[in-house]
Design a protein that fits this description.
2 copies of one chain form a homodimer. Chain A is of the alpha/beta class. Chain A contains 11 helices and 14 strands.
Chain lengths: 346, 346
């Protein structure tokens, strides 16, 4: 696969700005990546494009690849995921059109762009790249365990898919709003597309996972903050190893524990009870202290997406009183979130 | 690399018996793999072979590949490791001779056999296989967390390279001597060569590491024991993620904690103090309870290789009194080891 390019080679960024590709989908739930890019990287998205018959829109202007290229776009990003992560035949004409128009293609699906022969051929003919953000960079090191300069915050979950990425994005944004130098550090596909760089922790060979996490947040200015996107959960029966490698390699000074209000079972593993927030804090501090003895928990990010405003406020207050820590839903912001941010900096 | 074959495809075993290849080395320390095979798989080793000028011997009969083939050998195993894990040019003639004589080649070095063109060509011409035991099997699943039938024992270390493999081999041997149905389950290269099968946990992609561990010790008869080779340490700054994935996926009923008497710093990471045996037991039981709430620690395997007999006996007795658990050095055996085995079965 001669056109396959890993997502991050040294600190190389993805080609931006993006044109967002929405495929042929009619179900908004499959367009999470596109919505995430619109919400968190709007200034680097020139517009959207899709197959005929697609009905989902991000609200960004509709542009053909040629129009997007003329407006400065450098790549078209696949912003949707089918169940199974395949690239259906209907997507080929628009993908080829993008290559023809001078855009690189960027994808994060299970199916690799470079595994599709017509795309490979067109990329070669047009001198374009097929970039799969699920490909970890080559030559990852074994972790050294050496303490790095700069400050680090890691979001740690009670489970998968409950807001670790959004919490890290919101915290990085809030730190920058306070005039601090802060970077969001992406450890998963969507985060990498948003940040324009990062390492897909789940795709790294196990022996190098902590080393990859070290590479993800390198030495920095003592006042600089890296806000690192967490993965999985230390209590997850399938992914705890990834979470521990990320915790050790990130050597965070601060953790924020992420939980979804009302979730009681592990997503996709209903025979496993979710660990409590208290247990998750305790375990993360115990394990994290191995590479950073000064680790502390600043508070909890509580996903109250399923609740009305009053119920959400009550859930946040109840959890805060129970835990004796700042609790906030970053999507709702307000005073609770400001207190959580302050505690991160304390 | 059309001749590359993963080490374990389903439960396929390596081609045995072996001819052991000792390269061109003159330093016994580089022949650990060959010595391990002689010690633990002697009945599946027909003899040894080496380059001219090599001085290290396992004591097995010297055989040419053709003689070994005539005695039933089916593969030649690279039983030595150079610093760097390379295959020097001087090894090529004997490796080609083995392929010509009808033997497959089995290697566990960093350098892949199938990456060497003359070997690839000769393997194709002679219809032989180049098997790299560092290649994990394809199609590994994400862990399910489902409780499996049969009984499982995992060796858990305070560090790397202090006897987890030898302890597991000795325990599996002792269980079989007591008439029990027991298998040694290999999770590293040398262990895989000894067992003739297994999964190299360190080479698995992180998201599938616990799933690989589940595959390594599948459902079995309720009275059957799998004795699983541990990897790394839960407190290791580089490899803890691998250790946790192996612990979760193995869902052991029993752990035996392995420690080297007198070791105080993490091997290769001298700025890290070794965790105590007590801390290692406590952490492994807490984390392991996630996938097997009935997990217990049967005792400690204490590597006393650096001590004389009297000092070793004293070290074993002192540790046993301090911990209130059976402590033994499996290499010394005797009453202490018998007590450790009994406690595993209790």
């Amino acid at each position: 696969m001669p056109n396959a390019v890993p997502a991050l080679r040294e600190a190389e960024a993805l080609p931006q700005p993006y044109l967002l590709f929405l495929g042929d989908i009619t179900e908004p739930g499959y367009a999470k990546t596109a919505f995430g890019l619109r919400d968190w990287a709007a200034e680097r998205c020139v517009g959207e494009f899709a197959c005929e018959g697609a009905t989902v829109s991000t609200g960004l202007p509709w542009l053909t690849p040629a129009q997007a290229r003329a407006l400065g776009a450098r790549s078209m990003v696949i912003g949707v995921a089918n169940p199974g992560g395949r690239i259906p035949p209907a997507w080929l004409p628009p993908l080829l059109e993008a290559l023809h128009a001078g855009l690189d293609l960027v994808g994060g699906l299970h199916a690799r762009l470079a595994a599709i022969e017509p795309l490979r051929n067109a990329a070669r003919v047009h001198g374009r790249r097929l970039i799969d953000v699920r490909e970890p960079p080559p030559g990852l090191p074994v972790a050294s365990g050496r303490k790095r300069t700069g400050r680090r915050l890691l979001t740690v979950g009670t489970d998968c898919a409950l807001g670790k990425k959004y919490t890290a994005l919101a915290l990085a944004h809030a730190l920058r709003e306070r005039g601090l130098d802060a970077d969001f550090r992406a450890s998963g596909q969507t985060g990498i597309l948003i940040a324009g760089r990062g390492i897909p922790m789940d795709a790294v060979v196990a022996d190098f996972a902590a080393g990859a996490a070290e590479l993800l947040s390198p030495d920095a200015d003592p006042a600089h903050w890296d806000v690192i996107e967490g993965q999985g959960s230390l209590s997850h029966p399938a992914y705890a190893g990834v979470s521990l490698a990320l915790l050790h390699g990130s050597q965070p000074d601060v953790i924020v524990v992420c939980h979804a209000h009302g979730r009681e079972r592990v997503l996709g593993h209903p025979h496993y009870a979710l660990p409590s927030v208290e247990e998750t804090i305790d375990l993360a501090l115990r394990l994290g202290a191995r590479t950073n003895p000064a680790i502390r928990c600043a508070g909890v990010s509580l996903n109250t997406g399923g609740l009305g405003d009053d119920a959400a406020t009550r859930a946040i207050e109840d959890a805060g009183a129970r835990l004796g820590l700042p609790v906030a839903d970053p999507m709702r912001g307000g005073e609770p979130f400001a207190r959580l941010v302050e505690r991160c900096l304390a």
